[in-house]
Write a structure and sequence with these properties.
The complex is a heterotrimer of chains A (about 120), B (about 425) and C (about 170).
Chain A: H1 2-29, H2 58-82, H3 89-111
Chain B: H1 7-20, H2 25-62, H3 78-88, H4 99-114, H5 134-155, H6 159-190, H7 195-200, H8 206-209, H9 211-225, H10 250-274, H11 289-310, H12 316-347, H13 355-387, H14 400-413
Helix pairs in contact in B: 1-2, 2-10, 2-11, 3-10, 4-5, 4-10, 5-6, 6-9, 6-12, 9-10, 9-12, 10-11, 12-13
Chain C: H1 3-24, H2 28-48, H3 52-77, H4 89-112, H5 127-136, H6 142-163
Classes of the chains: A mainly alpha (about 120), B mainly alpha (about 425), C mainly alpha (about 170).
Chain lengths: ~120, ~425, ~170
């Protein structure tokens, strides 16, 4: 098992080299003629106004929130799924109960309008 | 094994023996790992070129035009031409960007897409690392790509990039849930998260046993990559490329590379999980598992290209509603139905992995799909009826007295 | 010095460096990125212990969900890419004293504890299946497991209520 993870680590480093290689090659080859107009921030072809501050809708946060709760649910689901074939029936029903409780949470968020994209 | 039946393992053994001549065992081990990683990485990059060619030609033909045909025969050298262009284009970095994060974002995006290939089973022994958490590793690595998008959007110092990055992350994060839940159904039936075991447990392809899961994994996979019809958030005509706005030249090409490599990775995952992976009949007595896997992965990618060329883009609120109000409840119900159906079938004496068992599971799945679509249809009918204009109340129409009163004017007007 | 020890020192240093950068970075977003490095380091340490499922769960939950939420929270409060200086000397003093006290408590505990000297048993091959069985075994962890689901629902309802646009 450690050997497999060592491979993953090595692959990570090799992938960084493979992605960084073309970048370095491009840096050596490409022209570099910056001027103030080219280096200005893009805003549909007009001058920018104000800082890069954006009205961050809280809706993005709510989606992330529901995602965290369901992600943790899947963490519990994975070991149960691996052991599924060796489990008696009531163990399966316990997990069904778990899923139903979390489905109830989803229905609550749905009915309260938290899942709408405003 | 000999060179014909399994060229990759044979080549690996030959190289390992040659290295063993002058390196200690640790050195041989590390060098072989670096070599395997290099081969997988280069394979991913080469497949990126093939994918872009398939995509451009496929979408072009669907749109009744030819596609690239200048660079080489049938435009086969087009990806190489694109690569040369990306290398030699000037890299315009705007002022006030955060240099370190700005440069790290495209690298992280392509790296996150490439390291998925460490756990993809190309053949019975042909896998980078057969971890006992195979498919879960793939899902975990997806999170790194999301961080790369946030880094890109934030460091560009551009309102549109930041806004685009938030929306893309909201979409990606939402579609990850049905993706993971449907994969849990596969793990349930396979009894392991290791990709090799999942493929070995498919004498009957999981496509026939778990069709709903396969469809959900394919759709949410397409949404995870940010492809059409889910590409509202980085399409040129919409928010002008979203979090990619300030990137040019090779850095933009790296984002592009990350997207297509991720698309190929999702195709490989669907092929391994649902289409039986490397299983296929022998060709002329030769076992060619890697060829069958390759064919299946390309097939799934062609389905994605087909969907891109055919379907219109989904609007962002439709996108989110489709996920949270259809896919997530469907995948939760799918888990329960698969658990119940499997227990029923096994209680009825049908062993797992046989065709009768698969038939029972298929019937349950299709019933669930029919019920789900009927519910969606009913909800749509209700919404349509609520949105229809109501009957207009009776308006005072012109009667004879009114006409006679105004007749001289009307007659005079002619 | 075995390979395992070398790897442990390397990964531990990376984790500590990430954590240090998180608390000393002037820019909040850089701090969040340092946190991601620290979390990835912890995942690598789990992998070193052969706790493969925990390592993947750490990456999937912490980096794939919680780090994203933290970055969203950073952007929710300040969307501007700016640097934020240290507040004032008083808070610096108080926090330094608190940190030194905590460090003293941790070090005393570390050195006084009787660490077992035996090598631990090997990780069984079907550890994930055993984990799954333990989660739903009535004698083991099924009650905390179901209570955890209720806890998750409570967290969802609470935070959705707080985040909701109150009309």
């Amino acid at each position: 098992m450690l050997h497999d993870f060592a491979f993953v680590g090595v692959f990570f480093l090799v992938a960084i080299a493979l992605a960084g290689g073309p970048l370095i090659l491009a840096w050596l080859i490409r022209p570099a003629k910056p001027n103030p107009i080219k280096s200005s921030t893009y805003e549909c072809g007009v001058e920018t106004f104000g800082d890069a501050w954006v009205q961050f809708k809280v809706q993005y946060y709510v989606y992330g929130l529901v995602f965290v709760v369901f992600d943790i649910e899947t963490i519990f689901l994975f070991p149960w799924a691996v052991a599924y074939s060796q489990l008696p029936l009531f163990a399966v029903l316990e997990m069904v109960l778990f899923i139903l409780i979390l489905t109830g949470a989803l229905v609550y968020a749905w009915r309260k309008g938290d899942l709408e994209w405003v | 094994m000999n060179v014909v039946n399994d060229p990759f393992t044979w080549a690996g053994n030959v190289i390992a023996q040659w290295l063993g001549g002058f390196l200690p065992p640790v050195g041989v081990d590390v060098t072989m790992m670096v070599l395997r990683a290099g081969v997988l990485g280069v394979f991913a990059l080469v497949m990126f070129m093939v994918m872009t060619w398939i995509e451009r030609k496929g979408v072009a033909r669907i749109q009744d035009r030819i596609g690239p045909n200048r660079a080489g025969p049938f435009g086969l050298l087009q990806p190489i031409a694109d690569g040369v262009k990306a290398l030699t284009k000037e890299d315009i970095t705007p002022d006030h960007v955060d240099r370190v994060v700005f440069n790290a974002a495209p690298i992280l995006s392509s790296v996150a897409a490439m390291i998925v290939f460490a756990a993809i089973p190309f053949g019975p022994g042909l896998i980078g690392a057969d971890m006992n958490i195979g498919i879960f590793y793939i899902l975990a690595v997806g999170g790194l790509g999301i961080i790369a998008i946030l880094m890109a959007g934030w460091s560009s110092n551009n309102k549109y990039a930041l806004l685009g990055a938030f929306r893309v992350v909201a979409q990606l994060v939402s579609y990850e849930i049905p993706h993971v839940l449907s994969i849990v159904a596969v793990v349930m039936l396979a009894g392991s998260m290791s990709m090799i075991t999942i493929v070995e447990k498919q004498p009957v392809w999981f496509l026939f046993v778990l069709p709903v899961s396969a469809l959900i994994v394919l759709f949410s996979g397409m949404a995870e990559i940010g492809r059409s019809p889910f590409d509202l958030l980085d399409a040129e005509s919409e928010i002008i490329a979203g979090h990619h706005i300030e990137y040019s030249g090779m850095k933009f090409a790296l984002f592009f590379l990350g997207e297509y490599v991720h698309a190929f990775a999702v195709s490989c995952i669907v092929a391994a999980l649902f289409l039986g992976g490397w299983r296929g009949p022998n060709i002329f007595g030769l076992t060619v598992p890697y060829l069958w896997f390759f064919i299946k992965a390309i097939l799934v990618f062609n389905v994605m290209v087909w969907a891109r060329g055919t379907l219109p883009r989904l609007r962002i609120d439709h996108l989110m509603a489709f996920n949270w109000k259809f896919l997530v409840p469907l995948s939760l119900v799918n888990l329960i139905v698969v658990a119940v159906a499997d227990r029923l079938a096994q209680a009825g004496g049908l062993a797992a992995g046989t065709w009768p068992w698969a038939l029972v599971m298929l019937v349950f799945n299709l019933a669930m799909l029919v019920v789900a679509l009927a519910l969606v249809g009913w909800a749509g009918q209700r919404a349509r009826r609520a949105a229809e204009p109501r009957e207009m109340p009776e308006v005072e129409t012109h009667d004879e007295a009114h006409d006679a009163e105004h007749a001289p004017i009307a007659a005079g007007a002619h | 010095m075995t390979t395992l020890q070398v790897m442990f020192i390397l990964l531990g240093s990376i984790t500590l460096a990430g954590g240090l950068y998180t608390v000393t970075a002037r820019n909040l977003f850089h701090g969040a990125l340092g946190l991601i490095v620290a979390l990835a380091g912890v995942a690598a340490l789990y992998a070193l212990l052969e706790a493969s499922f925990l390592a993947a769960a750490q990456v999937a939950i912490y980096i794939g969900a919680i780090a994203i939420m933290i970055i969203f929270a950073v952007m929710l409060t300040r969307g501007v890419m700016g640097a934020y200086p240290v507040k004032d000397l008083w808070s610096l003093a108080v926090s330094s004293i608190g940190t030194v006290l905590l460090l003293a408590v941790l070090l005393v505990t570390l050195f006084r504890f009787n660490w077992p000297q035996t090598t631990p048993a090997a990780v069984p091959a079907d550890s994930i299946a055993q984990l799954g069985k333990a989660l739903v075994d009535p004698n083991l962890y099924v009650l905390p497991f179901e209570v955890a689901s209720v806890l998750l629902v409570a967290a969802l309802i609470g935070s959705a209520y707080i985040a909701r646009d109150k009309k």
